[in-house]
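Protocol step 6 of 9: fold each sequence in the batch and record its C-alpha cells directly after the sequence line. For illustration, a two-sequence batch is reproduced in full.

Sequence one:
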Amino acid sequence: MTPHFLQNLLLTKEQRQNARPLFPSLRCLTLIQWAQIFVGWLAWTCDAVDSFSVSVSVDNLQDEFHKPAHDITTAITLTLLFRIVGALIFGTISDRYGRKWPLVCNLLLMSAFQLGAGFAQTFGQFLVLRSFSGIFIGGIWGVTTSNVLENVPLEARGFISGVLQQGYAAGYIIAAAVNLSIVPQAKGGWRALFWIACGLSFATACFRALLPESEHFLQAEKDDRTRRTTKTETFSKEIKGTLKRDWLLCIYAVLLMGGLTFLSHASQDLYPTFLQTTKGFIPRGIKVSTIFGNLGGTAGSLAAGHLSQRFGRRLAIINMVLMVGAYIPLWVLPNSFFWIANGVFCMQSAVQGAWGVIPIYLAEISPPALRATFPGVAYALGNVGSECSVSPFFYDFVFHFR
C-alpha cells in the first residue's frame, strides 16, 4: 500500500488542475523546505559544473596534453558512461537509508576527484579521474530530485521541478563564466576551473550536512514500523515488483531519458566546436553565446514546469520537443552573432523546457520505494544510448556545414 504522503505524487491531471494557485503554495513553504530546495538546486549545479568543465576547456586541454579534440571529448564520454554506477549505488543507498548522508558523501567524493583532476599531469591520469567523477556525478540527480520534490506542496511541484532542473543551466553558466574570466588570468590556467568546482561541491556538502533528513523519508520509515516491516523488506519487495510488473515502464523511462539526453548533449557539448569550425566565431563570442543559451534554458524550464502543473507533464514535454524542431533553422543557419545568440537562446529554452518537467514526471511514475534509484538509473541508462550517437552526429554535422 502506498504511504499517504507519496499518494500526492500520483494525482491525476484533473486533480492537479483543481489545485491551489502556485504563489500561495510557495508562501506556505517553511524555511527548512526552502533550504532543501536551494541545496538540491546547488547540488545539481555542482553536477553540471563538473560535467561541463571538460567541454568548455577542450582547447586548453588540447594544448596541455597535446591531444586532438576527439581524444579530449573521450573524457566526456567516460563521465557519462560511468554515471550509471553512481546512480545505482547512491540511489539504492538513499532509498534504503535516507537522502541526507548519501548526498553528503557523494558531494565530498566528487570534490576530491575534481581536485585531483586539477592536478593531473598526464592525459591518462586525467581520464581515470574523470571516469571516477562520472560515478559521483551519476549519484546526485536521483537523490536530489527525490529529496526536494517529496518535501514541497503538490501545487508547487511543477514549478519547483523547473527550478531544480535549472541547476544544470546555472552550472554551465558558472563553468563558462569561470573559463572566460578567471582561467585566462589564473596561474594554473584550466586547472583553476576544477579547483573552483571542488570548492563549490565541498561547500554544498557542508550545507546539506547542516539540514535535517527528508521529513517524508522519516515518515515512510515510521509507516514501515507501524506495519511491522523493515525498510529492507519494503525496498526488496519494491525492486522485485518493479522488475516483474513494471518492466515496460522501465524501458519507457530509459528511452525517454535517452531521447531527451540526446537533445541536451547534442545541442550543447560540441556546439562551441561547431561555431568555431563552421561559423568562424572567436572563443569569446562562443562562450557568450552559450551563456545566452543557458539563460534561455532557465526561462524555458521554469515556464514549462509551471505549465505542466496545469496542462499535464507529457503534453508539456511533447510541446517543448516540437519547438526544438521548429528552432533548428535559427540555430544552425545564421552567420551573425546576433542571430546565432537568438537561435541558441530559443533552442535551449525548448530543450531545457522539456527537461524542466522531467524531475516531477519521473517522481510521479517511479515506484514509491525507489524514488531516488528509478529516476537516476533511467537517466544514466539513457545517457549510455544517447552518447553512442551524439559524437558521430556532431562530427558529421560539422563536416557537412564546413
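Sequence two, same batch, same settings:
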Amino acid sequence: MRSEVRRRLTDVALLVVLLGLVAVGALRWVDTTAYPVVVLQTAAPFVAIGLLLLTVLTAALRRWWVLLPVGVALVVAATQVAPAFVSHASPDATRDLTVMSSNLRVGRAQPTQLMDAVRFHAVDVLVLTEVTPSALEGLRREGADSYFPQRAGEAEVDGYAGTMVLSRYPLREVSADLGGSPNRQPEVVVTVDGVDLRVQTAHPAAPIPGQTAEWRAGLRALQAWKERQTETGPILLVGDFNSSSAHPGFRAVADGLDDAQRTTGSGWVRTWPYAGSRLPPFVQLDHVLSRGLTVIDSGQVAMNGTDHAAVWGSYALPDAP
C-alpha cells in the first residue's frame, strides 16, 4: 500500500514539474509587455534542458505512462532548439566584410581588449552602443582612429543613449536616429567594393519594470524599418536588441533576416550577463542580422568591463551593380 502511494506521489511530482516546464516554454508564443512574462521568456533554453533531465529521471524511475507526455514535450522543445545547432552558412565563400557589435556598458568596456578583438577578427564595421566620450578616447589611444577612418553617430556623457558606427570603408549617415527608443539608433550606408550596405543600428529600451511597453515599441520601430527596405540591396540590423529569439517581438524583427550566430549553427549563444552580475551568461541579446549577404562565419567575444559579449559576423558581398 505504501509503495503504491509513493508511486502515485512520484507520478504527481513528475507531472507538476512537466506542467511547469511546459507553461514556461509556452510563453515563447505570448507577445506581451508583462514584465514577469518577458523575463521568463529568456529562460527558454532551460526549459529544453529541464525536459531532457526530466525524461532521464522518468525513465530511471520506470514511470512509463508519465514518460509519454514528457517525451512529447521534449520533442516539441527540440524542434525549437535544434535549428540553432544546424549551420546554413557558406564557410568556403570569400570573406569580403566582417561586422561586429559591442555594448560598452556605459563606456566601461576595456578598450585594449576590444581593439585586440577588432584586429584579430579583421573587423570592417564596428557598431558601438552605450558609448561615451571617455570610451572613444580610450579607443583612440588604442589606434581606433587610424583603423577606422570613418565614423557616424554620437557618444553621450549619459552613456546609455550613445551609439556609433566605425568603419574602414566610406560611410554616409542617412539618419541620426531611427526613433522609438531613448537610445540613439543611427542609420548609415557603407560602401564596400562598389556595393552599398544599408546599416541600421539597434538599441531599444531595456525591458525593465515600468519600461516594457517602451521596449516593445522599440522592437516595432525596428520591424517597421526592416519592412520599409523594399529595394534589393543588402541590409544589416546590428546592435544590442535587449531581446532574444524567445521574444515574439524580436522574431518579428528577425523574420526574413539571417542572424549570423544562428545561421552558422552556433547553438546556445549567450551574450549577457557577463561582468557585474552573479548570474552566468544565459541569453543572446546582441545580434547581427542581415539580408542579401552570404554568411560565412560568426562568433562572440567577452571582455572586461562590460556585461555584454561582442558579436560578429563575416560575409561575402553580392556582385556590384
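Proceed to step 7 once all outputs are recorded. Observation for sequence two: The mean pLDDT is 95.
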